[in-house]
Design a protein that fits this description.
The complex is a heterotrimer. Chain A is α+β, with helices and mostly antiparallel strands. Chain A has two domains: 87 residues, 2-Layer Sandwich (Gyrase A, domain 2); 176 residues, Cyclophilin-like (Cyclophilin), CATH 2.40.100.10. Chain A is 29% helix and 27% strand. Chain A is built from seven helices and 14 strands. In chain A, the strands form three sheets. A seven-stranded mixed β-barrel of chain A has the order 6-11-9-10-8-7-12, surrounded by five helices. In chain A, strand 1 and strand 2 form a beta hairpin. Chain B has two domains: 167 residues, no CATH class; 139 residues, Beta Barrel (Cyclophilin). In chain B, a hairpin with a 2-residue loop joins strand 16 and strand 17. Chain B is elongated and about 65 Å long. Chain B starts with a strand and ends in a 7-residue tail after the last helix. Chain C is mainly β. Chain C contains no helices and seven strands. Chain C has a four-stranded antiparallel beta sheet, with no helix packed on it. A three-stranded antiparallel beta sheet of chain C has the order 2-4-5, with no helix packed on it. At the A-B interface, strand 1, strand 2, strand 3 and strand 4 of A face strand 15 and helix 5 of B.
């Protein structure tokens, strides 16, 4: 549910957490990102930085410049002045990533987990397909790759994107591993709850995994121009489209990445309109699947 | 300029306030855990309080200085010696080219700080020299000190023989207990009244599974308010699960039943609640405490926590030098 | 003359691998401490026989320079 009024909670001497609601829905993330954008545009006194998450916004402020109470009042005024969330428009880059679904590398990670930690673990693509009433891994690929994903938040690990399916016909969910895996290949695409993530480096993890991309989303050496301002590719509000390709194509892209010739496929001229998005969603039959 | 002969347990370049402005990409601020000791070390050698220096943890490094300079050691007593002669803490000390500083195991406190006149001059990364070694960024090529590293230092003329007033030094306890101030929130309303009272009255023991990513505590069970169990299923199945949200620095993050204080290199967001937050002026206590020691938490207001920061800033200045 | 092996750091005693009477060789790991999620192994400085072990596995809150093992 979306709260009638956002909730403002203190986090120690210099953080404020603003909650817009208590469920995973895109609307709440649009509110969080819309407020983050407005705070930056208005240069609100005393705000050092903000970090949007699914249904909330963390604000880091400088207490020497503004008190918690004054900041709360200022942000409440700003939210009121923004008008309905439908009016929110955000610049939004769109990334196309070549993606191998049901790939050999995540299969190896799953088999390692089954051998060493939990022999009962069902192969993730089959498991996720079954839980969501899909006919099998092939339909999982059509459904998962059939939508753009909205980058709702970055974090837990630097540059790790948490994404939500924009097309309601492609929404699926997946429980997390219990206990978690001790390793996940870099570039793995996985799901936990209703969010899709890409692992920027090889880390432990608990998401169900079923695909892999050869394109770095994390580049400490900043070899590619998309990383000129940071070593992380994404910002909140970016979108991602996973394009199913073969292992041969994956390996070809890997070579291009290694020799520095890879050209990122980024669409950089679009603005995401919440109003247009909502009217498009309303026109769809949410019960259909690809 | 400073050659690393032995790295110590985990020693790194840090600056204060650390790497700010990248929380929304998942970068923590890093920086020194005990910024009280850190800033005073810099002031002793004539640096700006936030200049880059070294943080040594538990076992300090052995370093050879390649040119004459002035240094200061603050924080934990690591039995430091300069060419076999004991080096006093809380004082600026002249060093001659070729001298070797040996820092051993921390006897009082756990984190020792070394400032060098001019400040450490590694390449800043995203606006800071602080090391975040899990991601390989900042400091010496993104890692803690290694044998053979040569740490660059900017030119600077410090003055030896300066000393911090006793009253201006952090009172590192030696009785194995710490009173740790906390602010309620963001999610204190997820804990029932009995659970809140239990948290504030219990002994919480610091686990050895604690480092700059998080400080894990052992103690009694948490009990939850209704909103922790009566919530939409996408929050997750445990009472302490919540839809992923941003984590304030210093949040006491409740992973299941285990509280983990998120400190300087901690995660920026996740799916567990944060019923209380350790304010920034209290981090030095975390930074100087050892496994097995006991924390007793005491609730203070946000305003009082902010006053502590203001007072600390006044202490971390020339006014504290004798 | 007895050789003392002391803790190199504050921390917890994760593993004690010897007991009184055991023969040990120089370089052999006698005990492993845990601090900051890191293991700090402590080796025998010389060949000998363990004459005393003063700290049990699982002990918490040890200081640096605490006597753990004596080798005769």
């Amino acid at each position: 549910m979306t709260y009638d009024e956002p909730r403002y909670m203190p986090g120690g001497d210099r953080y404020m957490l603003i909650e817009f609601g208590n469920e995973m829905n895109l609307e709440l993330n649009f509110l969080a990102q819309g407020l983050a954008g407005a705070i930056a545009a208005q240069r609100v006194t005393g705000v050092v930085e903000t970090a949007p998450c699914f249904a909330s916004l963390l604000v880091h402020y400088e207490p020497e410049d503004i008190s918690f109470a004054d900041l709360k009042a200022e942000l409440a005024r700003l939210i009121a002045s923004l008008g309905p969330s439908d009016d929110i428009e955000l610049p939004s880059r769109l990334f196309y990533f070549p993606t191998v679904y049901c790939d050999p590398w995540t299969r190896a990670a799953i088999e390692d987990y089954t051998a060493k930690i939990n022999p009962e673990k069902e192969y993730d693509p089959a498991f996720v397909a079954r839980l969501n009433g899909l006919s099998g891994p092939e339909q999982l690929v059509r459904v998962h790759s059939g939508t753009e994903y909205w980058v709702a938040a970055l974090g837990f690990w630097p540059g790790l994107p948490f994404m939500m399916a924009l097309d309601p016909r492609c929404v699926i969910t997946a429980p997390k591993y219990n206990p978690p895996r001790t390793w996940t290949p870099q570039g793995t695409v996985g799901m936990g709850g209703a969010s899709t993530a890409i692992y920027p480096v090889a880390t432990p993890g608990g998401y169900q995994i079923f695909a892999r991309i050869p394109v770095p989303i994390w580049d400490p050496k900043q070899r590619f121009r998309e990383f000129k301002d940071s070593i992380c590719l994404f910002r909140p509000g970016d979108r991602v489209k996973f394009v199913p390709v073969s292992v041969a194509e994956f390996e070809d892209v890997e070579r291009q990445v290694a020799d520095g010739s890879y050209e990122y496929n980024v669409v950089g001229y679009q603005k995401f309109s919440v109003a247009h998005y909502k009217s498009w969603v309303a026109s769809l039959d949410r019960n259909k699947r690809f | 300029m400073i050659e690393v002969l032995k790295p110590g347990l985990e020693t790194s370049v840090q600056d204060f306030p650390g790497r700010i402005g990248y929380w929304n990409q998942g970068f923590p601020p890093s920086g020194p855990m005990d910024s009280w000791s850190f800033r005073l070390a810099n002031i002793l050698v004539g640096n700006a309080p936030g200049a880059a220096g070294l943080e040594a943890q538990y076992i300090g490094p052995t370093l050879r200085f390649q040119r004459d300079t002035v240094i200061a050691l603050t924080g934990a007593d690591m039995g430091a010696k300069l060419d076999h002669a004991p080096v006093p803490l809380w004082r600026s000390v002249a060093v001659r080219a070729g001298q070797v500083l040996t820092m051993g195991a921390a006897k009082i406190g756990t984190r020792g700080y070394l400032a060098v006149a001019g400040g450490i001059a590694t390449e800043p990364w995203l606006g800071s020299r602080s090391t975040f070694h899990q991601a390989g960024v900042g400091g010496m090529d993104g890692s803690a000190l290694k044998i053979g590293h040569v740490i660059p230092v900017a030119a600077g003329a410090g003055i030896a023989g300066r000393e911090v007033k006793h009253s201006a030094r952090p009172p590192i306890r030696t009785d194995r207990r710490w009173d740790v101030e906390v602010c309620a929130g963001p999610n204190d309303d997820w804990i029932d009244a009995a659970g809140q009272a239990r948290f504030l009255s219990a002994d919480w023991k610091l686990s050895a599974k604690s480092n700059r990513t998080g400080f894990r505590l052992d103690g009694p069970e948490w009990t939850f308010a209704e909103k922790a169990t009566n919530k939409p299923p996408e929050h997750g199945s445990l009472p302490s699960n919540i839809i992923d949200h941003g984590y304030p620095l210093g949040a006491i993050n409740l992973a299941g039943q285990t509280p983990i204080i998120l400190v300087n290199d901690g995660p920026s967001m996740g799916g567990f609640i944060n019923p209380y937050t350790v304010p920034s002026a209290v981090f030095w206590k975390l930074g100087q405490s050892k496994p097995g020691e006991i924390y007793n938490f005491r609730q203070i207001s946000v305003e009082d926590a902010q006053t502590m920061v203001r007072q600390r800033k006044a202490v971390c200045s020339e006014a504290s030098i004798l | 003359m007895a050789t003392e092996v002391r803790t190199q750091t504050a921390g917890n005693m994760w593993k004690v691998l010897v007991k009184p009477g055991d023969a040990v060789k120089a370089g052999e790991t006698l005990f492993v401490m845990e601090v900051m999620k890191m293991e700090v192994a402590h080796e025998a400085p010389a060949d000998g026989a363990v004459t005393a072990v003063h700290v049990a596995e699982g002990a918490e809150g040890l200081d640096a320079d605490q006597l753990v093992v004596e080798i005769g």
